Structures are given as C-alpha cells and as structure tokens.
Amino acid sequence: MRVSVIGCGHLGTSHAAAMAELGHEVIGVEIDPDKCATLAGGASWFYEAGLNELLARHVPTGRLRFTTSLAEAAAFADVHFITVGTPLRADGRGYDIDQVLAAVGNLVPLLRRPATILGKSTVTVGTVARLQEIIDRAATVDGVELAWNPEFLREGHAVQDSLYPDRILVGLSSPAALAAVEEVFAPILARGDIEMVVTDPATAEVAKSAANAFLAMKVSFINAMAQVCDRTGADVADVARVMGIDKRIGPGGMRAGIGFGGGCLPKDVAAFTHRLGELGAVDAHGLLTAVQDVNRSRQDAAVTLVENAAGRPLKGLTIGYLGAAFKAGTSDVRDSPALRLADRLAGLGATVVVFDPEALDNARRSNPRLEYREDAAAAVAGADLVVLATEWPAFTHDADLPATAAELVRNRTLVDIRNAVVDGPWLAAGWTIHQLGRPTRKP
Ligand SMILES: NC(=O)c1ccc[n+]([C@@H]2O[C@H](COP(=O)([O-])OP(=O)(O)OC[C@H]3O[C@@H](n4cnc5c(N)ncnc54)[C@H](O)[C@@H]3O)[C@@H](O)[C@H]2O)c1
C-alpha cells in the first residue's frame, strides 16, 4: 500500500520505518527541513534502538523516503498517518492541538482522490469530531475518510512495538475506513496473534488516555509505597515483587524510583486530568491529580536521599551523574526526571557532572548550566558521590563500572534513584548503595 506519515518525530519516524519494513511504500513528511534532510540521508535525528538499521535498509531502495512537501504526500498515498506533536498548552489547560489541526487542515484540500486519514497522535476526546468537520468543509473529492488509531509504543522499544504491537486500536465510523485500516495493518494481523479492537472514535480517544493514566497510576502507586517503606524500614523492591506476582496486578511499571517523565506520560496525564475537570468527572479527576502530586514529590524524595547519602550539605559537593535521558533506550530528554533532579542539585550548590550514552547533546542544549563529560569514568572522576539517574544497562549491568568508578571517586557512595542496579558488583567493589524505599546496603 502507499502510505504517508505526517510528522517524523519520535513516533512518526519509527512508524514510517516499520511501515516500510512491513512491505508498504512509504513517504514521511517532516516540516523541519534539518530533520527531514537527516532522515532523507538514511539516519535518524534522535536515538531509538534499531531505527537506524531500518532506515539504512529502506531509504536507499526508495521504499521509504522523506519530504517537506505535503502536496507530494497527498498525491502519493492512499493512507495518511498523522503523527505530529500534541504538547501541553502553555497554561497547562489541555493539549495544544494546533499541529494536528494544521496537518489535517492543510492535507485535505490537496487530496485529489479517495484517501483515509489515520490519526495516531494522542488527542483529547472530541478531537476526531472536530477534524471531521474540517474534512466535511475542505475536501474537494468524495471518499476522504477519517479514523483514529492511537499509538501505544514505548520509547526505547519503538521499532519493536511498531512491528509487534500488543493490540491495534482504531476508532472509526465508516466501513471504508475499516477496509483501509485492515489493509494497512494486514501484515501484522496475518500473524493471528493480536487483536484489532474497533470502536467509535470517542472510545478510542478515551481508551488511549485511560491506558496512559493507568500506567502513570501504577508508577505513582509503587512510588507512594516507597515512601511508606522509607518510614517503616521495609523494602519496596520486595513489596513490588510480592504484589506483581498477583496476575491481577502484574509486575510491569512496579519499580519504584524518581517517577515518570518523557514526551508523553506527564503531558498526557495532565491534559486528561484537565479534561476530566471540564467534564465534571470528579472521581477520575481526583485520582489523577493525586497521581501527579506523587510524581512531583519524588523529586523532593530524591534530593533528600542524596543529602542523606552525602551526610553533608550539597553546596560544594561534586556529583558524578550517570544518565540524562528520561529513560533508557532513548536520547529524549523531554520532561526528564533525571535532568530535572540534576538541575535541582546544581541549584542547591552541587557541581553536577553528567554523562549519558545517547542523550548528551540534547541534555547540553536543554540544560547548559550542568557540566558534561563524554564517558562515565570522566563524569565520576573526582566526585564525592555518584548518582545513577537513568537505568541504562551500561550503568546497571556493566560488571566493570563499579570497580573502575571505585578508583575514581572520593567516597564509594552510590545513589541509585532508579532502583535499577544489580547490587553484587557494586557491593564487591566497596560501594554503599542508597535507593528510594529500600534499606541502605553496605559492602
Ligand atoms: N513518542 C512516543 O513514544 C509516543 C508514543 C505514543 C503516542 N505518541 C504521541 O504521538 C504524537 C507525536 O509524538 P512525538 O513524541 O513523536 O513528538 P515529536 O515532537 O517528536 O514529533 C512531532 C514531529 O512532527 C513534526 N511536525 C509538526 N507539524 C508538522 C506538519 N504540519 N507537517 C509535518 N511535520 C510536522 C515536528 O517537526 C516533529 O518532528 C504525540 O501526540 C504523542 O503524544 C508518542
């Protein structure tokens, strides 16, 4: 099938590459000429595991190409995925959907033959109805269909999740749209191992928001239990393990730490919460307000943990800081809890020296007041203590790092705000490990 993907960011680029891998002919439209040129050269402008390999495979053959021209995509494709950004409004009162309105509003008058527009961006309930009005007004041909196909991929696993999703959700109201959806996802559906859930548009919009809200709630729940453990001497890792064995609860999202971040969960939960307030859904509004309060409070808990581990005021302390990305597997520092904590520690007078395997350039751009080094050893050299802030396996599972770092720091004190390290090598190398909601472990 001929497919366009409009908005080649973290979601769109991964989706476009996956569509090409599944056998479609794909054109990606990216409004930013620099990003577009990088993608057209066969490489991604951000790090995502496995993405460059797919781009290198499909861009040279022409199966996947990139353009800044919406007209070119309108002339080429039968299905148009909308994958532009939906940031939080500056005043926090819901999504800014200008990118979605512009993408659809500009595309529709350019269409000269029947086509299906499939929205993947995360939007508030009611957006599809609003876009349908635009299509009804601006379409110059019959057969322009609209459906919403919310995306559930996880950054850091975006390629894998695009090729092998847990489910496909589509909200639509016409048989023609359903036929297009079935055709474009046929290579995935043919495997017979996942369900395509077809709903009305409003249900698809709410289901995506509800899924994100539930994930955030799970994270905040175990983080709230970390606070309980800190006050009782219990160990939140064991509490999470015991809870997660229960099939009704499950182990996913149950590692306590510094809270959720990134380009999606924080703004999606905030936008949904705002909408719930407008709708008068007071129970859900109260629940999600508490989820966000817990998430914010984790920053304070992490500052206290660092202060206690240091055993002295932060002013004048040098911290070797491992991790800036909002999670492992990505170069994304949008709403990164790691970077926010680093900034707070620096604000309290510490010198914070940061290394991240993939997010260093983005972190430098977004927070120039921190110091940056090109590898982990250089970041921890001469530090009073080490903070591990992103759960990169290079930090948590590297057998050599604990011993190498031990020779370079003043105190073998590790503050792991992700509760992610494998203890053994660190304890063997003489480190004391501090984590949120867990007893301190000494060598
Ligand atoms: N990042 C994720 O893992 C993820 C997962 C699920 C859902 N989502 C949702 O997907 C949407 C996109 O998220 P993202 O993280 O990829 O954002 P992003 O900011 O990384 O990407 C958006 C891209 O769209 C481009 N763009 C904006 N307007 C355009 C236009 N008119 N024509 C062409 N390109 C245009 C921007 O330049 C940018 O590169 C959001 O609604 C987000 O909530 C993202």
Features:
six-stranded parallel beta sheet; 2 domains; globular; binds nicotinamide-adenine-dinucleotide; Rossmann fold; 14 strands; 443 residues
Structural features, described:
With 443 residues, this protein is α/β, with parallel strands linked by helices. Strand 9 (318-322), helix 14 and strand 10 (351-355) form a beta-alpha-beta unit. Helix 10 crosses helix 12 and helix 12 runs antiparallel to helix 13. The longest helix is centred in the middle third of the chain and has 32 residues, at 201-232. It has helices at residues 10-21, 33-40, 51-58, 70-76, 98-107, 127-138, 158-163, 175-184, 186-189, 201-232, 236-245, 265-279, 282-310, 337-347, 360-366, 376-380, 393-396, 401-406, 423-428; strands at residues 2-6, 25-29, 64-67, 79-82, 115-119, 144-148, 167-171, 195-199, 318-322, 351-355, 371-372, 385-388, 413-416, 432-435. The chain contains 19 helices and 14 strands. The strands form 3 sheets. It has a 6-stranded parallel beta sheet with strand order 3-2-1-4-5-6, sandwiched between helices. 46% of the residues lie in helices and 14% in strands. It folds into 2 domains: 2-197, Rossmann fold (3-Layer(aba) Sandwich); 200-443, Rossmann fold. It binds nicotinamide-adenine-dinucleotide. Nicotinamide-adenine-dinucleotide is lined by residues 6-12, 29-32, 35, 83-86, 99, 102-103, 121-122, 151, 153, 155, 158, 263-264.
